[in-house]
Amino acid sequence: MRFVVRAAGALAVLMLGATAGCAQPVEPQAAPAEEEQLPFADWLAELKSEALSKGITEETFEAALSTAQPIPRVIELDRSQPEFTLTFRQYLTRTVPKSRVDTGRRLLRENKEILEKVSKEFEVQPRFLVAFWGIESDFGRITGGFSVPHALATLAHDGRRSQFFRGELLNALQILDEKHIQPHRMKGSWAGAMGQTQFMPSSFLRFAVDFDKDGRRDIWTTRDDVFASAANYLSRSGWKGDQTWGRAVRLPAQFDRSLISLEVTKTLSEWQALGVRRPDGRDLPVADLEASLVQPGDDKNDVFIVYDNYRTTLKWNRSTYFALAVGHLADRIGQQ
Predict the structure, then answer these.
(1) Is 83's pLDDT higher than 90?
(2) Is 306 among the domain residues?
(3) Is the predicted pLDDT of residue 16 greater than 60, yes or no?
């Protein structure tokens, strides 16, 4: 098995060469529209009527979209999405290099006070918040340079996934109408993922938090809001603050490999009885935890026992590689 990185989620890979395979939480995608495509100006006028009917002010709509035109590069990226074939170890090497670990450890120390406040409220450990932050946007360094309203308008007009992106565009207009950010500063990926958390607009509306109480939910520049928004997303998705994500394990000879599946869940003591051990041969932890086994690639030695927080990470991004990378980075960041 090889992992295919697509450009929609490879923003940081393309720009960094050493980061995540998916740059934003994965959102459901509607079926392609079958209706005839309107000229962009006519489509925009029709969208304006809908936006105004939903309470968006004309001032907001004009500020966000009065100069909008279809962006050919966005369509090109959506159509082609160049692929990069990586093994799990290649992916992990790019995503969790020593430089990122060192930066993560430094930022964990520098942001200790706010991270501890966020962790106390949402029950998500600081090292995991820093790990998500690091993999999604290289700790806020790479967040995308496209105008989110213009990119979403391009995709919504295009027709291939118009219903999904039209909804995200209306959500983006609501965010602007609520004055969380100015239109010219609403930047993100070509697919509309925004800020240091790379939230789609719908995720922003559901999970973004104004933690510094300044009246704006700012996932672009305010770290208090960035950390709290990520923590709120994870907490409301089922994160358990008293557990880790999992660990590497070693399987015995003649192990029934059909048991390597998220569909198979056993207690740690049951896996222990089947001969599953830590890589150095030591026993598994003595804890009352349900767990599954995951093998991310072709290498039969790359096997991990994973807990509920791994499954929660998959709600953020449905990629085995991504979820394992978050866990690895969090572990290494925590080893100060």
Answers:
(1) no
(2) yes
(3) no
